[in-house]
Amino acid sequence: DKMASDRAKPLVKLRCEICNVSVSSSRDLEEHKKGRKHKQREFELAREQLSPSADKRRVILGLLTRYAPVAKDAEQALDAYIDRRSTTSLDTKENGIGVVLRPGKCKAKSEGGVLLYYKYTQITQPDKMTLWQDALCRALHLTGRIRIASEGINGTVAGDSLALELYMSAMKTHPELEMDRSAFKESEGSAHDFSGLQVMECKEIVSLGIPPGSLKSTEGGVHLTPEQFHKYLNPEAVNPDEPVPPGLGKGSRTILIDCRNAYEWKVGRFKNAILPPTRQFSDWPKFADNLIDELKLASGGDPSTKGVETRAQNTTPTAVMMYCTGGIRCERGSAYLKSRGVQHVYQLKGGIHKYLEAYPNGGQYEGKLFVFDKRRLVQPPQCDVVGKCEVCGVQYDHYTDKTRCCTCRALALICPDCVQKLTPRGETNADDQTVEKKKSPKPGNLNYVCKLCAPAEETLPAEQPPSDKFEKFLAIFRGPMCAGKSTLFNKLRQSTDERLKGVVFVDHVAIKGMFRHLGDKARRESGKRWAARIADESVKSKEVRGIFIEEMSEECLREHMAQAPEEHGYRVTVFQWHIDIKLAHKRNIQRRAARGMAPRSWEEMVANQKHWEAENNALRAQLDREKEGRNGNGRRVVWVDGGEGDALEVVMKTLTE
């Protein structure tokens, strides 16, 4: 009776007043409040409270003076900005904010710009800082990306020059930021350099790939002004009587490290810098560990000669100079080096941006500067092309969305001529108007694999045939439904038999690439690239003895059987299954019932059996014309009974003959 009365009680429902959603328990309500939709709604409501009015001047002035009053020149800049944006339309419905983000067109380049900045400082309430930044940028019609965490702020914003002045004034008066104007890196641009505005609350403002909090922002290297950095790039030219930081004087050895990714330094860098082969900054610690071990930075041992100046005495301390785009990656990179025992670490204050401001003609920086917006590249008035096409080697330094590695999707430097050659079949280059366009190319559809993804080159003996004529084999399993080929394939894959050492197992999707891996020298590199994507690392070594393929189409099979494997040093073996139709139908019913599936019909099984019988007869006729099933070209077909006998032993015996 008590259980019945409990069931009769109505369920108590709790309601979230913000989202207008009902839940059955307080625990569910707590889980709901942790969700993305609830937080997004909270964010929108808070933003509406920050800008409740559609009066542009009152909204912006309220955001600017939210934490401290602004100077008179800032109010004058606000009036000038309002006059310039007098045509801006207002809409209180979009994004729940009084002033809509609708970037206007600048009349001249001088009227727009891009700001790059960061600051490590304690932010007590990152969520409120995120709300304020979002509302301020939208009110000023700024675009860009801003990351906010308890450790600081990192951002890039673009828009009208007057709006950027107002933004810098607000950042200067904020009690937790108090950013000086010198902390901003300015360059020409407009709000259209970004597709929109993104303000995010994160765990850290730049990710190094290690647990957040492992390094403190105060543990970084010593900041060098652009003038000091320029002078110490050539330590031999430093006046010996002038006091210099440890490790940077005349006679010392300095190591210059680029903290950017590979696709960034390919278009511009400082001379003699050590260039890390990284796709993202989270890969940098692994590179730094290898560099420390190689150059023995922590112990002060003799360094490698690559990118490092030699010194007369080992007692001179080793100094590391670092640079990046705006300086924030050097903060993390230098702190990591110091945590590994490197004593003297120096970094370029303000990054390459500030260096180019001090030296507009480039100074000792060669090439262009890669930036993470639609401009892609910022170049000094006088600069040489240092980038090279990754395919043909011609000088080229222009990135497009289409020229990407098909494996890791990283940007690649590929000239237009090579783009045309790498465009897949059935597609044409968008710039080629002479060929009829069959299919529009999509970004990243080039048949190109970058050097970071492609396996290392293998050293092949010149003009020396292999010791064994058929030292490698390609085994193909073919047969009708329920013949047992898939079961055997899985048994072989899981086997620990010594005879299967050095054998790679591949499903039918990867047939083409694996066949090319065993192909002739002309196609070997292409085959290795495909193999690296679908097999284990061992497939790239010479230890690979053979490849098992579960299935292969008739067209591919006839193509491969028609080739001359003796030129490639491998044997093609086709294991052709055959099975009684009644036994196959019985297995079909049992296996699909075990999976809770309806069995295939008898008619479908008969049709499939007839198809394979026809293929078997055609293959037998082909081999009969060659007079024997195993000929001098290393091509053979083995008929396997799927209903009787030990098929596994048949396969193993055949391959080890």
Automatic annotation (TrEMBL):
<dbReference type="Pfam" id="PF12874">
    <property type="entry name" value="zf-met"/>
</dbReference>
<dbReference type="GO" id="GO:0003676">
    <property type="term" value="F:nucleic acid binding"/>
</dbReference>
<dbReference type="InterPro" id="IPR040503">
    <property type="entry name" value="TRHO_N"/>
</dbReference>
<dbReference type="GO" id="GO:0008270">
    <property type="term" value="F:zinc ion binding"/>
</dbReference>
<dbReference type="InterPro" id="IPR036873">
    <property type="entry name" value="Rhodanese-like_dom_sf"/>
</dbReference>
<dbReference type="InterPro" id="IPR027417">
    <property type="entry name" value="P-loop_NTPase"/>
</dbReference>
<dbReference type="InterPro" id="IPR003604">
    <property type="entry name" value="Matrin/U1-like-C_Znf_C2H2"/>
</dbReference>
<dbReference type="Pfam" id="PF12368">
    <property type="entry name" value="Rhodanese_C"/>
</dbReference>
<dbReference type="InterPro" id="IPR036236">
    <property type="entry name" value="Znf_C2H2_sf"/>
</dbReference>
<dbReference type="Pfam" id="PF00581">
    <property type="entry name" value="Rhodanese"/>
</dbReference>
<dbReference type="InterPro" id="IPR020936">
    <property type="entry name" value="TrhO"/>
</dbReference>
<protein>
    <recommendedName>
        <fullName>Rhodanese domain-containing protein</fullName>
    </recommendedName>
</protein>
<dbReference type="Pfam" id="PF17773">
    <property type="entry name" value="UPF0176_N"/>
</dbReference>
<dbReference type="InterPro" id="IPR022111">
    <property type="entry name" value="Rhodanese_C"/>
</dbReference>
<feature type="domain" description="Rhodanese">
    <location>
        <begin position="250"/>
        <end position="364"/>
    </location>
</feature>
<dbReference type="InterPro" id="IPR001763">
    <property type="entry name" value="Rhodanese-like_dom"/>
</dbReference>
<dbReference type="InterPro" id="IPR013087">
    <property type="entry name" value="Znf_C2H2_type"/>
</dbReference>
